[in-house]
Structure formats: structure tokens, C-alpha cells
Amino acid sequence: MPEPVPPIPTRLLVVDDDATLLDTLRDALEIEGFSVQQAHNLEEAAAVLATQPVDLVLTDLFGIGFHDSSFARVGEFWAGVRAAPIIVMTGFAEAQRINPATYGLAGVLLKPFGVDELVGSIHQALPTRASDDSGRGSIEPSLGATRPDGTPRGEVLVVDDDPDIREAVGRALEAEGYAVATARNGAEALAIVERELPDLVLLDMRMPVMDGWAFARAVEERSLPLVICVMTAATDAQVRAREINAAYVLSKPFDLEELLAVVERARR
Predict the structure, then answer these.
(1) 159 and 203 in contact (C-beta within 8 Å)?
(2) Rounded to 5 degrees, what angle do the CA atoms 51, 53, 57 make?
(3) Is the pTM of the predicted complex or chain greater than 0.85?
(4) Which of 22, 112, 192, 256 has the fewest CB atoms below 10 angstroms from its CB?
């Protein structure tokens, strides 16, 4: 029997003008099982991204080449080069008060930080989804998630910070023969849809890291042709759907028949 193939490590790009810190972070992250690329400035970072994909970027805020070292500018730059989710590392104390999602960021780490805090932030920012043989995420049907002829009925991405909702909706759809991927926030969802477009995105609106509004803006900026269904308990559900040009709305709590009806309509 052949030996199992070990999982491909998560690929990180760490950008900081402090060479000592770069080496320290590399050593700590490699011990934790990550694959690490380093860059001292934006030019080096761009060269890395031009030759190989990464799963997440850890970047300093000052001293790496930004003329305007603001959170907004950092988010705009990395979005422009279509990088993976971004965590900013900074000693700027005011960073504790910002909402990273406002600037298109997956998180902010206040220097100095410990290894546990660093690794926890990385895991929180990374998408949770199945992996293909390239090590990147993809939407794959689970066992039994198929039509009688063996093909999946369709692909659905469930985006919600509530694990109970993700599990319940995912199980219900898989039982009906759909391929399902899940994401805990908009940043995770964006990383998934940039690689493979699902037939439908079931999207919660209020989530940490990147909320539904920020996800929708990022999708529009990338011209990704997604069909979105808003899942919300808000009384103004239709208003929220219009705000992001969503095609459908599911008002929480919803039952299985309502869920399946929306998914079927989206596939036609």
C-alpha cells in the first residue's frame, strides 16, 4: 500500500524591513509547519507574487515602500496585486481600534506579539475548505453529494461566522446532492471564489474580519460573476440584499424547503 502523501504546507509571504524580525518569524512559522517566503519591501514582495501563489500575506505597515502608510493604502495595494488575505503587523497602538474589514484586511497584529497570537491570527484568516492536489482550496463534493449519475447537482459556498449555521446548511445541501464549501467570513470566501466560482453564495452580512458588504465590494472590484443570496435575521432583509445587488434573500430562521427553493432557482 502506498504511503499517504503529506499535506502541502500553507504558503505565507512575510514582508518587513527588519531583517532580524523576518528571520525570527520565518523560523517560528516553519516550526509550526508553514512554508515561508520573505520580502524586505514591496518590490521584493511583488517579485515573489509574480512567480508563485501564496495563501496569506503578513506585512509591516511602515518602512517597506508605502508613501502613504495608512491601513486604507495597504489594503488597496494588496487588493491591486490580487494577493491572498492580508494581516498587517504594526507597532502603531491605534491599530487596536480599527476594524480590519473596513480596509479590506483579514487582521491586524500589534507588535510585539507572541507565536500563539501570530499562529491564531493566521488560522483565523485562512479559508477552511477542501484542498485539491495543488494545495490550493477548491469546492469539492463530499461523499454522496451527487446526482444518481455521479455528478454534483451544483456548487454552493456557505459564508457565515456561526459554525452551527455552516454545519446545518452544509449538511442539508450535501444530503440533496450539492457540493458545499464553507467560509467563516468574507476574507475566506473571497480566497475561495477567486480560485473557483460556485453556482451560489449563501452570504451572512455581519461577520468578523470581512463582513458581507466588504465581500460584495471586493467581488465587484474583481468583476467576479457571482450569484449571491443574503442570509440575515434583520428586518430590512430586502434592503440589505439591494445594497449588494444580491439576487435572493433568506430570512433567518429559514427552513429546509425555503433553502432548497432558493438554491434550485439560482441554478436555472
Answers:
(1) yes
(2) 115
(3) no
(4) 112
Q: What residues pair up with 180 in beta bridges, in sequence order?
A: 156
Q: Which of 46, 55, 122, 56 is nearest to 80 (CA)?
A: 46
Please provide the DSSP assignment of 77-146 as one string.
HHHHTT-S-EEEEE--GGGGGS-GGGGT-SEEEESS--HHHHHHHHHHHS----B-TTSSB---PPTT-S
Alpha-carbon span 44 to 50, nearest angstrom: 10
CA atoms within 13 A on the CB side of 33: 8
CB 185 within 8 A of CB 207: yes
Q: How many angstroms separate the first and last alpha carbons of the chain?
A: 44
Cα–Cα separations (whole angstroms), residue 139 to 4, 98, 172, 265: 22, 32, 16, 20
pLDDT tens track for 110-130:
888 888 889 888 888 876 433
Helix H segments across the chain?
19-31, 42-51, 71-80, 115-125, 163-175, 186-193, 212-221, 237-243, 256-267
